[in-house]
Amino acid sequence: MLEKTIRFVAVNNTSTAMVYNSGARIAVSYRPWRFDSSGAIYYGAEVTGVLNNFGAGETISASGAPSDPGDVQDNSTNLYLGIHGSFLAITNGAGNGNIDLYVEASGVDGWPSDNSTESLASEDSTYVCSNIFSFGIPSSKLTNFSI
């Protein structure tokens, strides 16, 4: 089962900074799922704009820099078991490497740490997927994932 609250963070492991004003973008959308009272699978509404905190005038540095964590997603009422989602990354320059997506989970009220530089190797973070780039020009990749 998904924890009480989750949030996503992207990590730029490419050799090029992601500059929003130059066309770089990151986006996550997903549909949560659970079983209804009859045992049939039930899909909740699509959730979009999960990493909408990367915006005009912002840059995510190269070589392992994280984005700011996305908005906290509350699962305390619907008690979803998992999610099916997609992760879009668009680069703005030449380089290579991965842009990785992590989900952070918390079983407590609120969030245990709002420190965006907290290690993603902590017990509260789980690697989800990567968009792998080897590019000479701006490039985009869409990767589907399930948790």
Structural description of this entry:
It is a single chain. The protein is 0% helix and 48% strand. It is elongated and about 50 Å long. A hairpin with a 5-residue loop joins β3 (25-35) and β4 (41-43). It is built from no helices and eleven strands. It is an all-beta fold and 147 residues long. Residues 115-121 have low confidence and may be disordered. The protein has one domain. The strands form three sheets. Strands 1, 6, 7, 9 and 10 form a five-stranded antiparallel β-sheet that branches. The chain has a four-stranded antiparallel β-sheet with strand order 4-3-8-11, with no helix packed on it. Strands 2-5 form a two-stranded antiparallel ribbon. It has strands spanning 5-14, 18-19, 25-35, 41-43, 59-60, 65-66, 73-74, 82-90, 95-106, 125-135, 140-146.
**Poorly predicted runs of 5 or more residues:** 115-121
Number of helices: 0
Structural class: mainly beta
Largest sheet: 5 strands, antiparallel
Structural Rg:
16 Å
How far is it from the N-terminal to the C-terminal residue, by CA? 9 Å
Map the helices and strands.
Elements: E1 5-14, E2 18-19, E3 25-35, E4 41-43, E5 59-60, E6 65-66, E7 73-74, E8 82-90, E9 95-106, E10 125-135, E11 140-146
Antiparallel strand pairs: 1-6, 1-7, 1-9, 2-5, 3-4, 3-8, 8-11, 9-10
Supply database-style keywords.
single chain; 147 residues; mainly beta; 5-stranded antiparallel sheet; 4-stranded antiparallel sheet; 11 strands; elongated
